[in-house]
Amino acid sequence: MTPLEIAAVAISFLAIWLTARRNMLCWPLNLLACALYSKLFLDVRLYADMALQAVFAVGILYGWITWQRDRDSTGTVVVTPLSRGAGLGGLAVGGMAALAIGWFTSRHTDAALPWLDATLSSFSLVAQYWTARRHRESWLLWIAVDIVYVGMFVAKGLLPTAGLYAVMIGLAVIGYRDWRRARRG
Fold first, then answer.
1. Directed axis angle between helix 114-132 and helix 137-155, to 10°?
2. Residue 143: half-sphere exposure toward Cβ, Cα within 13 Å
3. Fewest C-beta in 10 Å: which of 7, 19, 135, 172?
4. H-helix or E-strand containing 129?
5. Which of 6, 87, 1, 105 is nearest to 49 (CA)?
6. What is this structure's pTM?
7. Residue 75: phi, psi to the nearest 5?
8. pLDDT band, very low/low/confident/very high, at 19 (cuts 50, 70, 90)
9. How far apart are CA 122 and CA 52, in angstroms?
10. Vertex 143: Cα angle to 142 and 144 (nearest 5)
């Protein structure tokens, strides 16, 4: 446990909680969390997750812009449905990206867990895109990904981060519940 990891955990928790609440402050805090985790993942040789942070930063900027534009008359961020085709397409892209990144990192780096790291990173990008597009189903994918992340971080000895991801599972459940209600209302 390092001061860097503790700061990344605290900021990430707040950012995810604000995302579940559909609060615009989630975006700048998520950017800061990306920067902190990028350095942490470099230190522990989780290269796909390190690179994921840079891609997340782009996705965060996209989400920030999208959420700014797509609010109702009260300023509340509007939740939109995910079509079956878009959902299946996103999962297929996640699977193909996992194979490509896993192959590359297993052959060209000293990555600690290349295939698992690549798979989690790829599906995290799909979940991030769905979150930016305001699809409640993003939370279901986050739940699945975060469950596996907990095990990976425990195996790497990143216990505060594993704890954060365990809490993020709960936040994702709350986010799904709240976004589901918002979609009905």
1. 150
2. 14
3. 7
4. helix 114-132
5. 105
6. 0.86
7. 95, 5
8. very high
9. 8
10. 90
In this structure, what token pair is assigned to residue 46? 């989780």
Residue where the block lists tokens 């709350």: 174
Whether 114 contacts 102, CB under 8 Å: yes
Cα dihedral 92→156→57→26 (10° resolution): 100
Over residues 69-88, the pLDDT tens digits come to 888 878 788 899 999 999 99
Place of tokens 């000293």: 110
Residue 71 near residue 77, CB atoms below 8 Å: yes
pLDDT tens for each residue of 103-155: 999 999 888 899 999 999 899 999 999 999 999 999 999 999 999 999 999 99
DSSP state letters, 39-84: HHHHHTT-HHHHHHHHHHHHHHHHHHHHHHHSB-TTSPBPPBPPPH
